[in-house]
Design a protein that fits this description.
Length: 73
Amino acid sequence: MSFAHAYPVHRRWVIFAAVSVLQWARHKPKARHAPSHAELHREAILRREASDQVERERHAAQLRALSIHRPII
C-alpha cells in the first residue's frame, strides 16, 4: 500500500527532495586552498628569524657561562 495518497505532496517533489538530499550527502567538503608561494616564503622567513633568535640566545648563554668560569686576574 502506498502512502502517496495520504500526503498532499506531489510525487515529483518528493523524488526531487530525496535526490537533492542524496547529492548533498555525497558532496565533499571544499578542500582548503594550497598556501601560495608568498605565504610559504613568509613562513620560512619567520621560522628562520625564530631559529636565529634561539641561536643568539644560546650563544649569549655560552658567553655568560664562560665569563662565570673565567679566572679573576
